[in-house]
Amino acid sequence: MGLTECGHQKIDLCHWGFFLFTLSKLRLTPEMRVTGFTFIRNGNDLGYPFVPSIRSLLPLCDEVVVNVPRSTDGTLETVRAIADPKIRIIETEWDEAQRTAGLALSHHTNLALQQCTGDWCVYIQGDEVLHEDGIPAMRAAMERELNNPRVEGLLADYSHFYGSFSTEVYSLGWYCKEVRVIRRLPRIRSCGDAQGFRTLDGQKLHVKNSGGRYFHYGYALNPDVARRKLSNLSTLYGDQAGVERQAQRPARFYDDDQKVKPFSGVHPTVMRAVVAAADWTYHSRNPLIRFRREYFWEDIALIVKRCTGITLGVHKNYRLIN
Fold this sequence. Notes:
The chain is of the alpha/beta class and 322 residues long. The protein has nine helices and 13 strands.
């Protein structure tokens, strides 16, 4: 009996010793937290699909900060009506005198960024929508790079629409990737007109791909709404000549020679009702490859890209690392 009891005691002590050793080796780290952020002002009047935009971040993020500068069209009430507990609304003042180089846009983006609490911060503009198919890849990329301080941000791929929801831009004049996920660091800020992010001393961020895709609808709005939107943007750049040019556009507003192709993919789920309700179309009078003087080098670059995958002559607001 004594030997048996002693043997069981020895086994129990071994088991406890192994358990305690395993616990000591576990790397106990807090769960990764992700904050989405955006700002929107007078989004109803300007036709921004900002409700689908905000909703598209909710499955990815633990919270979404929405900065609503003082609006005159019920934008604040529309955001409140989304009624999701993840959304945190802040209200800020709008400076009508800030009409230089679109700096009001980065200023209000940064006001939202300052309220973020996540390890990663995911930015979206009011005319952009994140496609749900890329969310698992984005989450995985953030988890993979969480403890890699070399990675300051992550890129999202882009599909740009022009003229309608069924015509996709096919031109090198539009960015195909942009930084939309950033590490929450005091030295990283939105810059210029809020297209991208840089460090406080103006350095490009070191980034990797996220696997996510943003759909940009800012140039696919109803033509009358698009006219109002671009006239409003022109004022933010102090560009009175730009306002006058918008007023002189044809009745259907959009240029009739943009390089577009039919969109054959699937829109994000949160946008499908908006797309189905659209009653306008767009047709370009020019083929994809034009070889006209003003487009010659762009067409050459597109042929090179199609044949080799190499992109020529496109400005990159980031430094892609391996």
